[in-house]
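Supplementary Methods. Inverse-folding protocol.

Structures were first reduced to a discrete structure-token string of length 126. This string, shown here, constituted the complete conditioning input.
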């Protein structure tokens, strides 16, 4: 089992920045992919960003490319999502997820991930 705990959400004005953290514990592995997803009120959960832990390869949704950056700290077994130039439409509950990487894995898909955090609320005011 892998446990994921997100933190760093909050209320920010449009144009501002936030950094989300996702601390992993338990049976973690460098062969995992780490993803960030978000779910706005009344909408389906959507992919935001992902990183392959050992290679460092990253993937982004078009809506956040150039504004959000996913990174990791190996020593702390923590993945981050730095969000800049935030917009009201970025308002959502943000979830961290972990799952095994694979040659045919689709890191933008929820089904790739076995473990999920509890989510952290991000609210961007206009």
């Amino acid at each position: 089992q892998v446990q994921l705990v997100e933190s760093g959400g909050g209320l920010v004005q449009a144009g501002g920045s936030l950094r989300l953290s996702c601390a992993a514990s338990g049976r973690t592995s460098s062969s995992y992919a780490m993803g960030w997803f978000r779910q706005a009120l009344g909408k389906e959960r959507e992919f935001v960003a992902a990183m392959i832990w050992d290679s460092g390869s990253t993937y982004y949704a078009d809506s956040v490319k150039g504004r959000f950056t996913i990174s990791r700290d190996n020593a702390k077994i923590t993945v981050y999502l730095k969000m800049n130039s935030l917009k009201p439409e970025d308002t959502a509950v943000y979830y961290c997820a972990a799952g095994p990487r694979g040659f045919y894995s689709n890191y933008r898909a929820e089904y790739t991930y076995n473990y999920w955090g509890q989510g952290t609320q991000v609210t961007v005011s206009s």
